[in-house]
Specification:
It comes from Marinobacter halodurans. The protein has 4 helices and no strands. The model has no long low-confidence stretch (mean pLDDT 92). Helix content is 78%, strand content 0%.
């Protein structure tokens, strides 16, 4: 199959080479964070949770390794929420039709976030209690 001269290639959509690619990737990441913050209530709630937990982790009388875990767990939950939101957006972009596989994909994304919240609870509970 031949590609049309007007059809973009995957390489053309990558955003450049070398340092330009790094700058473009950083810009795309910031756009993704902004979109998540503006459009996803769950992401905003997790940002608030991070704004509370991370300073507490910095203040807590724990080892450096424990502090790293106390900070990493909530940040991991933010990353999971970004992926969960991406899954939901892709599913909705493909079709708004109710379909068992669409529901399953969205439910699995939600389950991943639930596991992330359990990780936070376990890490904070074990270290601080």
């Amino acid at each position: 199959m031949t590609r049309s001269i007007h059809e973009p290639s995957a390489h053309g959509l990558k955003g450049g080479k070398g340092f330009t690619r790094i700058l473009n990737s950083a810009r795309y990441s910031m756009q993704g964070l902004k979109a998540a913050f503006l459009n996803e209530a769950a992401f905003r709630q997790l940002v608030l949770m991070n704004l509370i937990l991370i300073p507490i982790a910095c203040w807590a009388d724990v080892s450096r390794a424990e502090r790293a875990i106390l900070i990493a767990a909530p940040l991991l939950s933010l990353a999971i929420e970004l992926l969960n939101s991406a899954i939901e957006n892709i599913v909705d972009r493909v079709s708004m039709e109710l379909h068992p596989l669409s529901k399953q994909a969205k439910d699995m994304g939600s389950a991943a976030q639930f596991v992330g919240l359990v990780i936070i609870t376990v890490c904070w509970g074990v270290i601080l209690l």
